[in-house]
Each structure stands twice: as C-alpha cells, then as structure tokens.
Amino acid sequence: IRAGSRIDYRLSLWGVPVRWRTLITEFEPDVRFVDVQEKGPYAHWHHLHEFVAEDGGTRMRDRVTYRLPFGPLGTLAHALLVESQLRTIFDYRARVIPELLGAPSPERERGGA
C-alpha cells in the first residue's frame, strides 16, 4: 500500500451486500497508515493503524472514529448492532494476528462513535 491507494471491499452486513471503498491517506512504513472511507456504510470512517516498537516486538494499535448515517435511526443501529459488531471484529483481529505471527496478544486503544 501507499498514500493514494484505494481498496475496494465487498462484504455482507446482516445479510445485505455492501460495497466499501477506502483511501489510504497517510502511509509511513513501519510506523502508521490511515484509511478513510470514500464509499460505504458509514457517514464517516477514519482508521489510524499504528505500529510501535516495544519489548523486542511491535505493538499494533488502532484508533477508529466513525459516524453512522440516518441520524436517530443510525444512533439506534449503533446501540443495537454496530458497536458490538465492531468490537467483535477488532477483538477477533487482536486475537488472530498474534496467533499468525506467533506473538502474545497486544492491548488495543479504541476511538469511538
């Protein structure tokens, strides 16, 4: 990846097919990168990925800020579905990446809605 890269995703949210496009707006190798949503399910999505040298390894940290569309309906969807789904996704990633790399699970920082 590099600054200016676009990534297109096809996924399913609660059985509904969704297309999502993100743009890599910042890229510092071995330090951090940022992806922002250009098209997709959120009114706003900004995801900072940071890589910090620590104890002979690397800690990966995420800070996500997002906003749902649809005003009060989006707020309700966040409370009922979205917040728990995002926690599940990031908890899964926090568990699987260290397993793939043979490292202990890192702590994560969370940004919020």
Mind explaining what this structure looks like?
Helices cover 27% and strands 45% of the residues. With 113 residues, the chain is of the alpha+beta class. Strands 1-2-3-4-5 form a five-stranded antiparallel beta sheet, with no helix packed on it. β1 (6-13) and β2 form a beta hairpin. It is globular and about 45 Å long. 3% of the residues are buried. The model is unreliable at 108-113 (pLDDT under 50).
The largest sheet, given as strand count, sense and whether it forms a barrel, is: 5 strands, antiparallel
- Write down the overall geometry: globular
* DSSP helical segment count: 1
DSSP, total strands: 5
Keywords, please?
alpha+beta, disordered C terminus, single chain, five-stranded antiparallel beta sheet, 5 strands, 113 residues
Sum this structure up briefly:
This protein has 113 residues and is an alpha+beta fold.
Give me the secondary-structure topology.
Blueprint: E1 6-13, E2 16-28, E3 32-39, E4 44-54, E5 57-67, H1 71-101
Antiparallel strand pairs: 1-2, 2-3, 3-4, 4-5
